[in-house]
Amino acid sequence: MNHQATYKAQPSHDLWFRAGQQLISDKLGILGATIVLLFLFITIGVWLGLWGQNWSETSDFFNQSPSLRHWFGTNAIGQDIASRGIYATKVAFEVGLLVAVCASLLGTLVGAVAGFKNNTWLDSSLLWLMGVIDSIPFYLFVAAIAYAMKGFIFSMHMAMILVFWTETARVIRGEVIKLNQLEFIESAVAMGQSQIKILLKHIIPNVSHLLIIQSTLIFVAAIKSEVILSFLGLGVKDGISWGLMIAESTNDIQAGYFLNFFVASGLLFILVIGFNLFSDALQDALDPKLQK
Amino acid sequence: MICLFKAPYLMKLNQLLLFLFLGLLSACQQQDNNDGNMNHEAQVDKKIYRHSEDGKPTSLDPIKASTIYSNLMAVNIFDTLYAYKYLKRPYELKPNLATQMPTISDDGLTYTIEIKPNVYFTPHASFAGGLGREVKAKDFVYSIKRSFDPANGGTGAWLWQGKILGIDQWKADGANYDQVIEGLKALDDYTIQIKLTQPYPQLIYTLAMGFSAITPREVVESLGQEFGSKPIGSGPFILTSFNSETAYLIKNQDFRAEPLDIYFEGYDPAKHKSYGLESLQGKNAPFIDELEVHFINESSSRWHSFTKGNEIQYTTVPKDKQNAVILQHDPILVHPQISKNYHYTYGTEAGFVYHGFNMDDPTFGMRGDEEHDKNSHALRCAIRKAHNWSQKNRAFYFGLGQVFPGIIPPSVPEFDPNLSTESIELDIEGAKTLLAEHGWNNDTLPEFEYHVTGSVLQKQFYEQMRGFLNKIGYPSNLIKYKPYPSFGQFNKAIKNRQSPFFFLGWTLDYPDAENTLQLFYGPNQTPGSNNFNYSNPAFDQLFEQSSTMLPSPQRTALYRQMNQMVIDDCVVISGLARNKINLWHKNVITFPDREIVGGFHLRYVDIKQ
Fold it and tell me: Residue B402 pairs with which residues in a beta bridge?
């Protein structure tokens, strides 16, 4: 009954309004959002060709210290570390966005169908599929996908999408099962609305807040995974990413040069912290039970 | 709760048990200490040298000694007929198991070689009575035949293929070891006769390579494939154990007594005085009791093991430590702390690194269409002009490499120091002009695939090459990185002619430019050694002409003519001979050289005590 009251008494626009209010009052959340927006701004600049375009240029100035010309110095073949770090932000955002959007959509769709068809063979099959995917070690799975799709530039993205959607699907499935028992769904059924219409019009809009939270979590996980996979040689191959910069720095560090490592891991750290703060604040704001 | 100490008799019993227990512990401890002392004394008495290599041998069977690591092991476990003089540079051969240099017939086709009597294989159960038997001329004949037996998977047959009379037919007839080969005979127990199909001046060098090391038939047949990990030979050391990390060897106590004459070996006080080699004069090698060869690929681990003091005693300087070791480049000077703690030498490698084009590639190579071939030639030459050797040398070789034009490296006597350096000079404008003249622009330039073994270092090579190409207007989106998971797969792609452009190194097998020129000889195209699939009838004709000639100014002139052809055809972007620094602990008396000498120096290592 409480659930019913919550949903009935709190229309969708009211939930979003209250969430917005709470988010604005969350200082850490605002800090996180600022960081994310800053990185987004950097990424858009790279997309528009405003900065970071000379990331692949080599020069005669190897392992230089920071200077006005090279803010974070140069690497072992004279490339500007700042430009590489900035350009890699775009790569991180591309991976994060693509994986977050695709995995969330796939997870929502499958989770909603499974929840809507709760306790049917379809639900059991989808749960079994999720269990199978979750039981495969992530990096082994990515390596297998990368090998199977040799030469395909999105093999890493595909592997991440195939792994990350299950968590979203489970969350959405649980929520849909709850929603399914509410009166407005029963009314829609009684009014003879088609299952697809109920799903698209009544159920999915009511889980959109969860979808946003899940997307931010997947976004961060995808960026971190990309860095690890690229470091291991399974991710970005032709191009630059923070993972590749950290991989490069394994040689640099032994020779006493740390800038490549500091810049790549520093940028990753700031973005992940920013996204986590934002994601936590969003979660607090969008969870009806936590709303003040 | 019962307290054991309450009853007096129980208390005594407990005390007794306690004393007995402590006594037992003490005895155990004493026993340990005794063993420790004994081991320590044994270690002090023994001279143990711990060598290191940056890779590991795949097999210890000499017929598979195709890497420097396998070769190093082979020449220390087995005997070869000839060896290189320990200190003499340029490299010079000397008799090893042979009594003297071969007697060669006037037509250069028949070699007669006497071997030393009373040289014995080390003991093995396969020998009568388990004792090592004498090495005979027939063992050499058997050992060479093994390379041609398809069942063995040997990798050194190319050295004698088509050159020793009848050996290819012997292989075709089923590789029956009891069948006599006309060109490879044991005339008696101590005399070998080799007959050639045509003069082959490099033959004698091949008899100093691990591939020609002498193996006992009964042991090989008894062990089968296991012979590759449990080799038995007549060399200065006996292998006691071997795994992927370390090979443990002990001195062959029965190794023939041959007092070392350092002056005959090429001792030069100006070069060698500070290493203590004089103390070895007149002594019988090997001087150490035990030899450990540690295979440590990871440079950081190797460096830490070396600098720790009590682990490996020799290393080359890894790239990432050159900054910490080298104080001055030309001439090389090391930091005072390094020279205080270690001995060091440096020298140019007997080999070089290069970028090569696959001439069979439909885009970058030749296909018989005059217009296409002219344009692809211009494209290759433009790419060569864009290559900045100076930058590569400083970025990856600490500026120590020697850049030279063509394919005859500085380590061979046929090297031409006066050859034009145009082919190794950076010429961005020249490259752009060449491209424009032949209609190459953003719309017509082909995709440039850079095939390589996937690693951080190789990726940096690629990125630098991309930077060079960008400077002549080659768009980044047309430059593709094609990494392979292993060198084996990369090599397979080259052998399958799938790699239009590659970066490789070549280490010479012997000090003769023929060894690099054969890489461009038409009939050697892949899967042979000619990875470039270069086919130039004029080159091939000169190669065939020179291959039967003894070293002479005429032969050198032919070699240089061939070198110029390869340069003119822009087949290769070459080359750079790396300068390597060897470091070893000061208590070790040695003069290490991993190049053509290939491990013969280990028998002359001594430890100061």
Answer: B577
